[in-house]
Amino acid sequence: MLGDARANAAAAVAILNRDGKGPVVLICEHASNFIPLNYERLGVSMADLQRHIAWDIGALGLSEQLSALLDAPLVFATHSRLLLDLNRDPSAPDSIVTESENIAVPGNRDLPDAERQHRADWLYRPFHAEIDALIDERLGQGLPTAVISIHSFTPVYLGVPRPWQIGVISREDRRLSDRILHALARDESLSVGDNQPYTPAQRVYHSIERHAEQRGLPGAMIEVRNDQIESRIGQMQWAGRLAHDFRVALDGFFSNAALPARRLSIDTVNH
Question: Rounded to 10 degrees, what is the CA torsion of 84, 154, 185, 23?
Fold first, then answer.
């Protein structure tokens, strides 16, 4: 189950509202569960392809709503994370998994280096190059820019319940995440995780590190429990809530708290 020219027929990246002028660039790395036919579903059942192992359920719908409400460009992936996790450096061992929550992914076993390189060239490089180019353009236009990635997580993982409805993931630069957490805390009915259900130490922070931290831009990773956003109504409700909280978090931010951002003119992918 190796790649060939047919695998490249579908673009690896899509962008919505590219010319949006709002102060946020949205990223959705796990938007799709699509796997080209020549990969034979990587040996995974159709039922398992609908589960969280293949994509972040509801994340794209939520991101699309946020894009509209915030006038924000949205860059999203068009292929399953099982082919290559775009929120990992492609050299990381877990960028291509052979098992996910005890579900085997036979098509990823014993991959030759050439296939790993093919997937990086086909999926990773265009996706992150699109984000690089978009941010460069915005900074060149003098547009305030924060980078927020949108994800969802399963309510139960390996038998362990996850009580949080939403989590905000951040590392040393907490300028934006602390403001978002403060805005979310105004709703006492919410269970909010600070670096839950993941932490950057689990290598989940690659996109924000690359596109926000390395430029000195504010960034945060948002994780919404997928039972909250599996329906269109849930996506709309959470989009309304998060759009408001992002606005509150960013109010006055760029005039008072931002560090100088820098433009990138080269692709910094490591192989």
Answer: 30
- Secondary structure (3-state) at 219: strand
What stretches of the chain adopt beta strand conformation (E)? 13-16, 24-28, 74-77, 99-100, 103-104, 146-153, 156-157, 160-161, 166-169, 192-194, 219-225
Single-letter residue type at 271: H
Where does the pLDDT of residue 16 fall: very low under 50, low under 70, confident under 90, or very high at 90 and above? very high
pTM of this prediction exceeds 0.85: yes
- Other Cβ atoms closer than 10 A to 28: 29
Conformation bin of residue 145: beta by default, left when phi > 0, alpha when psi is -120 to 50: beta
Asked whether residue 42 is domain-assigned, the answer is: yes
Whichever domain contains 245, its CATH number is 3.40.630.40
| Total domain count, the chain | 1
Reported as a single tens digit per residue, the pLDDT across 166-221 is 999 999 999 999 999 999 999 999 999 999 998 888 888 999 999 999 999 999 99
Q: Which residue range is the domain that position 231 belongs to?
A: 5-252
How far is it, in rounded angstroms, from Cα 164 to Cα 54? 21
In the block, tokens 């293949």 appear at 54
